[in-house]
Design goal:
Elements lengths: L1 H15 L2 H8 L4 H127 L5 H107 L2 H160 L5 H65 L4
Helix pairs in contact: 1-3, 1-4, 3-4, 3-5, 4-5, 5-6
Length: 505
């Protein structure tokens, strides 16, 4: 070391200046030589003293230089670590900006999907309004069918014994049933279309939005894990680079120190000229140290600027984090809106289902009333058929009575004609003889009595026939009134049943 070399030089100079050595020399020298030697010794001591001072200054300068190099190395290492962290933060900020851009694009796409979903909901609303119109038209058709059914019932109430009117009533009932079946099919088709459209819209929105939301959440979690991994890897790399740089700088410092020691040892062995050169080198070293100090100051300024940049990058990173948080909040808001839209659509679908169920119940009640009306129509038809049969029986009986009365009258006329002919035949020979005049008179008296008897029989037959006809007419009137009363009671019971159930539509 420098101190060891300094002690060796001092011991060598002390041996040269020792009294024994001086006495030995003075025994063989003259006083002039002794004075010259003393001057040489003094010069040598001064040279040794200046050399020791120079060595001390060199040692102090080396220590200061080593300290400043150590400080400079620490500052450089810190600056390198900060630069590594700055690059890591810049990379993470760039990746976060990319993730934010992706999140914005995903949010824009989700907003587009929501706009499309709203458009589909508006279309569904239009379809629902058209369905309501179709249902209203179906209700109007059902109302018309109910009116026609009521008209058919009124027609049945005023039914006469005619098969044509019964067939018209059956045709009206069939037409009402067909209109009811058409309304039922239209309602079922509208229900199927609405359910299919709503299910398709909800499936499309869920199929498009949910995977993007899940991928966005997965990408955000992957970005977080990647940023944490990069931070950990950058810290580890920085630590490794710091260790490797420190070891390299330590080796370089040791090599420089060994070289300085070797140079100092060489300087101590050279002459005074080399000492001057060493002092110049020391001055150069001081200049280098001054420059190094200026470099340290400049690097400290760079370090301060880098710290400001780090702060700015940190603020930017916080801004990016805030933007990412806003994007997440926006995604949560969009998810909540989507959930609310889904619940509203489900509610509207349930309301539509309830409305369709109500219409189906009304349709079933209308069918039941139609069946009841058909039953009443069949009963009316049966009663009309019975009335027709009764009228035919009465007409046949009346025809029989008329035929019998005509037959009796014809037989009476034939008898009268026969008796007149017989009387004329009997009167012809009586004219030939006046003797038979009394017999003729008797015969005329018999004829007159027989004619009177025939007239009485015809009067009695006419009286009995008129009595029979009056009796049959009264019975027919009673039966007709009974039939009308029964039909009126059936219609009244039908109206009461319909009025108790309420209006069908």
């Amino acid at each position: 070391t420098l101190n060891g070399l300094h002690r060796d030089n001092e011991s060598a100079f002390a041996e040269e200046d020792s009294p024994s050595t001086t006495a030995a020399k003075s025994a063989h020298t003259t006083p002039q030589m002794q004075r010259a030697r003393e001057r040489d010794n003094e010069l040598e001591r001064e040279r040794a003293k200046s050399h020791r001072e120079l060595l001390e200054r060199v040692a102090a300068t080396e220590e200061q230089r080593s300290e400043r190099e150590a400080e400079l190395g620490v500052a450089v290492e810190g600056n390198a670590r900060r630069r590594v962290r700055i690059r890591t933060l810049q990379n993470s900020i760039l990746s976060s900006q990319g993730d934010l851009t992706n999140a914005r694009s995903t949010a824009a796409s989700v907003e587009g999907e929501l706009a499309e979903y709203r458009a589909r909901l508006r279309e569904t609303g239009a379809l629902r309004s058209s369905l309501a119109e179709q249902v209203a038209s179906a209700e109007a058709d059902a109302e018309r069918a109910y009116t026609q059914l009521s008209m058919s019932q009124a027609t049945l109430s005023q039914l006469t014994p005619s098969q044509d009117r019964v067939s018209e009533a059956e045709a009206g009932a069939d037409a009402a049933e067909q209109e009811l079946s058409q309304a039922e099919s239209m309602i079922s088709l509208c229900k199927g279309d609405v359910e299919a459209e709503l299910a398709q819209a909800e499936a499309e929105v869920l199929g498009r939005v949910m995977p993007e939301i899940e991928s966005l959440e997965a990408s955000l979690s992957a970005v977080r894990s990647e940023v944490q991994t990069r931070m950990a890897s950058s810290d580890e790399i920085a630590q490794r680079s710091e260790l490797s740089d420190a070891q390299a700088r330590r080796a370089e410092a040791e090599a420089a120190r060994d070289k300085a020691l070797r140079d100092a040892a060489a300087v101590t062995e050279r002459d005074s000229k080399r000492g001057r050169r060493q002092s110049a080198a020391v001055n150069q070293n001081e200049t280098d140290v001054t420059r190094a100090s200026a470099d340290v100051v400049a690097m400290s300024d760079d370090l301060i600027a880098a710290e400001h940049e780090v702060e700015e990058e940190r603020e930017r990173a916080e801004g990016v984090k805030a933007q990412a948080a806003l994007a997440r909040e926006k995604m949560k808001t969009l998810t909540a809106q989507l959930q609310s839209e889904r619940e509203r659509c489900g509610k509207e679908l349930r309301e539509s289902e309830r409305e369709l169920q109500r219409l189906e119940r009304e349709r079933d009640r209308a069918k039941a009333r139609a069946r009841e009306s058909e039953t009443d129509a069949k009963e009316g038809e049966q009663k009309a058929l019975e009335a027709t049969l009764l009228a035919e029986n009465k007409a046949r009986m009346h025809a029989d009575l008329v035929q019998r009365s005509h037959g009796a009258a014809a037989s009476l006329n034939e008898k009268r004609t026969q008796e007149d002919t017989l009387l004329r035949e009997r009167c012809k020979p009586a004219t030939a003889s006046r003797d038979d005049l009394g017999a003729l008179r008797d015969l005329e008296a018999q004829y007159a009595a027989r004619a009177m008897e025939v007239e009485r029989e015809m009067a009695q037959a006419e009286v009995s026939l008129s009595d029979t006809m009056r009796t049959e007419a009264a019975a027919w009137d009673r039966e007709r009134q009974d039939m009308q009363r029964r039909i009126a009671e059936a219609l009244a019971s039908t109206r009461q049943t319909q009025g108790g159930a309420g209006h069908p539509f």
